[in-house]
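Letters spell out the chain; the tokens describe the backbone. To illustrate:

===
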Amino acid sequence: MDAPSTIAKTLRILKFGVVIGMTGLLIANMLEHFVGQNAAICDIKDDLNDVKVKVGDLDDKINQLIQNGTNDVLNEIKELFADQNRIIINNIPSLDYIKKLLKDALSQYDADKTGRTDFALESSGGAIVSIRSTENYVRGAPTLTLFGIPLCSGSNSPRTIIQPSTLPGECWAFKGSSGTAVIKLLGRVVVTGVSLEHIPASISPTGELKTAPKEFSIWGLTSEVDNEGAFLGQFIYNISGPSVQYFPVNNCYKSYNYVEFKVISNHGNPEYTCVYRIRVHGKLDGPRL
């Protein structure tokens, strides 16, 4: 129900209440006069006439009040909408500003999808130096390795995870649900976060993401043979979230030349795990190595 109708209804109810109240008082007065003296009948008739006149006046006043109130409410509503329209119009950004926002957003997405420097990117100087005891997943194709690094195989090498292309199938597949990659960064870096990327289910050839990493951890290493390292964090990749997910590192207080990326589990495939891309973000602390 709109505001004017509500006001009108409320005022009519008020009028009815006033009439009932006045009539009640009149009846009480009538009874008192009737009991006290029969001669009060004439006075009662006069009182009834007075009430009739007063009710008529009240009805006219309330009808006028309803009309005026309705007009006032309508005027207030019109004024309110006018103010809101002025506020909205004044705050609408210009077309040039909107175009700039879109251009900046597209530029950021095109520039590695995160807007953050990737210190593990192979084309910038990053490199995979070891996969420790992790075995590549290869269906029927022999793999030749040197110091644990695949030289020739029928599948993508671990280098894939630090390269920009992430089309379906362009991933590093390893046996089982856990694996490791030691990454040499382009210099000494104070790590502030990492980004893990996997293809979305919408473009997955199988329509599912069971091979995607789930739990993983990041370790800062002083060298490629550092078997202990500094624990920088453990995270969970959510296959229901965006394809690129950022994970902040809050406990890195020194710079490292190497990081170890350890996949602890995947999302349900017992045979193999696929890693599409890992990015390492932070602040460069010293010259490029």
User: Anything to note?
Assistant: The chain has three helices and eleven strands. Residues 142-146, 150-154 have pLDDT under 50 and may be disordered. The helical segments are 3-36, 41-91, 95-110.
